[in-house]
From TrEMBL:
Role played: Catalyzes the condensation of 2 farnesyl pyrophosphate (FPP) moieties to form squalene.
Stretches that traverse the bilayer: 236-259, 340-360
The protein's name in its UniProt record: Squalene synthase
GO cellular component: membrane; plastoglobule
CDD domains: Trans_IPPS_HH
GO biological process, one term: lipid biosynthetic process
Species whose genome carries this gene: Zea mays
């Protein structure tokens, strides 16, 4: 967001720009925690969400909700508010506007179910696309980046949010006292009468088909995410944006055609996560990761799946975008098996051979 005056928003150093975006995300986590807690009555939750953008100016306000780390965050909201109030006025106004729109959108969907794919996109826009808008404006205000088109900023948020919604099916559907249901009825109703039916073993085939359908829907945002990241100039901001996007395409590859999404927790191995963090330093690394994870999805496509042709089309388009950059390297990501396991097997066999050799000599 361009600054109204040069005095209210001077160009900060890179560390401050990164600090601003971290505080923006913390603000988003607070509002999302209030939204996610299904134990809060609607008549209480809706006003909190609608007024949240005002509460951030009040060091004395807090509302205890959520669980685990999120509860700690809400109990110590005064620290978030204090950090927010230390920012320049230009940053505060940008964050306030995005938070206001986000809270209003969340409140809307407290009283409305996600029925259509358009509803799904709208909900994800409120909870994540707007964060993309806000961050892009803050990068621009900081003088570190050009102002990205809203469509690209929105796709950055939607890809992350849709991936989380897909991965968290079981956690959301089993939420107490009330299920959280974000999968759009327009998609899941093609495969079941009720969204919760997918968690039962007798519905495995239809559940996986629905899962593949909704993963395919998420993949439509991947190319715009690549376009957004390719335009970034600041290394710290690039790193901040690229790692979650690679985690998202990797999680899509892990979830695709995977019935375990309906049985328990599905997430990338810590070793692979650490590797992604360590090895993501340039667009070449991003293109490589997107190409390889898209190839993994392609290898899992069943020709009998109702959406096989559409999924393959999206995957091929992502791969072509990566290849046309001329920056794809060969790296080799493994989702389900450790790359160290073959080495361990060889070491064990070698030790056994040495042991037998020693025994034979004796």
């Amino acid at each position: 967001m361009p600054c109204a005056s040069s005095t209210s928003c001077s160009v900060p150093s890179t560390p401050l720009a990164v600090e601003v975006l971290i505080r923006t995300v913390m603000n988003k986590l607070c509002s999302m925690t209030a939204e996610d807690d299904t134990s809060i009555p609607t008549e209480v939750k809706v006003p909190i969400l609608q007024e949240f953008y005002r509460h951030v100016y009040n060091r004395d306000w807090h509302y205890s909700c959520g669980t685990n780390h999120y509860k700690v965050l809400m109990d110590k909201f005064h620290l978030v508010s204090t950090a927010f109030l230390e920012l320049g006025q230009g940053y505060q106004k940008a964050i306030e506007e995005i938070t206001r729109r986000m809270g209003a959108g969340m409140a809307k969907f407290i009283c409305k179910e996600v029925e259509t794919v358009d509803d799904y996109d709208e909900y994800c826009h409120y909870v994540a696309g707007l964060v993309g808008y806000g961050l892009s404006r803050l990068f621009y205000a900081a003088g570190t980046e050009d102002l990205a088109p809203d469509s690209l900023s929105n796709s950055m948020g939607l890809f992350l949010q849709k991936t989380n919604i897909i991965r968290d099916y079981l956690e959301d559907i089993n939420e107490i006292p009330k299920s959280r249901m974000f999968w759009p009825r327009e998609i899941w109703s093609k495969y079941a009468d009720k969204l919760e039916d997918f968690k039962y073993e007798e519905n495995t085939e239809k559940a996986v088909q629905c899962l593949n359908d909704i993963v395919t829907n998420a993949l439509i945002h991947a190319e715009e995410c690549l376009q957004y990241m390719s335009a970034l100039k600041n290394h710290a901001i690039f790193h901040f944006c690229a790692i979650p996007q690679i985690m998202a395409i990797g999680t899509c590859a892990l979830c695709y055609n995977n019935v375990h999404v309906f049985r328990g927790v599905v997430k990338m191995r810590r070793g692979l996560t650490a590797r992604i963090i360590d090895e993501t330093n340039s667009m070449s690394d991003v293109y490589t990761a997107f190409y390889e994870f898209s190839s993994l999805i392609e290898s899992k496509i069943d020709d009998n799946d109702p959406n096989a042709a559409l999924t393959r089309r999206h995957v091929n388009s992502i791969k072509q975008t990566c290849k046309s950059s001329g920056l794809v390297k060969r790296r080799g990501y493994h989702l389900d098996t450790s790359p160290y396991r073959p080495m361990l097997i060889m070491i064990v066999l070698l030790l056994v051979a040495i042991l037998f050799g020693a025994l034979y000599t004796k």
